[in-house]
Amino acid sequence: MNHELYMTRALELATLGRGFVSPNPMVGCVLVYDDRTGPRIIGEGWHQRYGGPHAEVNAVRSVRPEDEHLLPQATAYVTLEPCSHYGKTPPCADLLVEKRVSRVVVCNDDPNPLVAGRGLTRLREAGIAVETGVLAERGRELNRRFFTQMEQQRPYILLKWAETSDGFIGGPGGQPVSISGPLAQRLVHRWRAEEPAIMVGTNTARNDNPSLNVRLWHGLNPTRIVIDKMGTLPQSLHVFDGSQPTLCYTYNEPPADMQATCVTLNSGKDFLSQLLADLHHRHIQSVLVEGGVALLSSFIQANLWDEMRVFRSPKMLGAGVPAPAPSGRLVSREMVGPDELSIYRAR
Ligand code: AOF
Ligand code: ZN
After folding, report:
1. Is 187 annotated as a binding residue?
2. Residue 245: which domain range?
3. What's the whole-model pTM score?
4. What is the ipTM of this complex?
């Protein structure tokens, strides 16, 4: 059977969970029966929402009663190793054993320490043929936030900024200036809705006074993360208006009336690694870092980033705060209205 064809379909189904399953991975499953007349899909499913049934369960449920007797001769294509743990649902590996499918083809192994190979072992011990690694790169790309969280014990970090064609990110003295156009701004709101958290540094919170919510797109507001090492930010800023969950990281004691969850870090230790460890502990899978230049540069210098999204506007400023230098591997470049958007990946 054409493994890549059915795995492509399973990956396509997985993407239907985008935005609804985080911090779980997106997972799809296709059940294929093969006989002399050729292969035919008898069931399909995907993980649809966090806490809900896994892809395999939905695929098995979708099989028509008259096709159920075909399952023992069917192949299950799953984009992630079937789970072996009792989580919010019983183990999917047990379900596939119970249905006695003849073969399971997997795209990615599950790095979750609760699973980590035990799902595959369970299937093999039950006499089911198992093949892994089919379209593995595509699966890792689809669930790159999940794999980073599991393997590196930190959130996936997306750095975003807009610069002028003469390389400035802000006006002289850090004054806010409008650099990118309305289409780029709308796209940024879409990105805010796509990530569970959004972060700004002290100067950006103070000078731009951003709300950090989703207004120009549909979707959930992300958790706001504000860095205020010295604890000097006024509580009158939009980020402290209490309108959405907000985390503030500082070396100081928080003011008593703060409308945010304040986390005091150890000033004798590295700020960024403590910050990322705390976010990981809170199961925040990815963070969109929206500036300013000091915060962006600290992620770049520590080599703790995964993606850079840079708008270059045709505007010129002549003077101001220089933008960071993009690095990594350029993966796409396109025009967004008058602005050129370049996306880089660390690996
Ligand atoms: C599968 N199929 O469709 C998904 C899997 O909290 P729970 O019980 O939903 O378990 C979440 C974990 O299960 C998640 O971190 C990942 O390891 C695995 N996800 N496994 O067999 C699925 N979504
Ligand atoms: Zn499962």
Report:
1. no
2. 153-345
3. 0.91
4. 0.90
